[in-house]
Specification:
The protein has 123 residues and is mostly beta strands. It is built from 1 helix and 8 strands, in the order αββββββββ.
């Protein structure tokens, strides 16, 4: 468990240092509402919606109406990395745009990690 915490701290420190030189503007192709599946996340956190805007990301879960806003966001090429506090837990999301309708990545927190699969919702 200490290794996971150390890994999370190192990743967050690197991202924080790198975020000073990178613009936090998300590319237009990523903007929109995305439904996600996180198969190995704890119960209640496996399905939900991620809303990606120009300079922020909101995460909500199927069993809750609350939207968890991003604390910070870093955009580099086709990747979106952001941090959110979800029910008092610091979660680091690392997402990579596959194409206009698909994003894949992962979410890391103190006690675990899960794969994220996002599909764009068509209005």
């Amino acid at each position: 468990m200490k290794i996971k915490v150390l890994r999370l701290v190192v990743i967050m420190a690197c991202l924080l240092i790198g975020s000073f030189s990178i613009s936090a503007q998300v590319k237009v192709v990523s903007h929109g509402i995305w439904s996600f599946n996180a198969p190995t996340a704890p119960d209640g956190y496996t399905y939900g919606i991620i809303e990606i805007k120009k300079d922020s990301v909101n995460t909500s879960f199927t069993e809750s109406k609350y939207k968890f806003p991003s604390i910070w966001i870093k955009v580099k090429n086709d990747s979106i990395i952001y941090n959110a506090i979800i029910d008092d837990t610091d979660v680091l999301f690392s997402l990579k745009v596959e194409n206009e309708t698909s994003i894949k990545g992962n979410a890391v927190w103190d006690d675990g990690e899960t794969q994220m699969i996002l599909k764009k919702k068509i209005d």
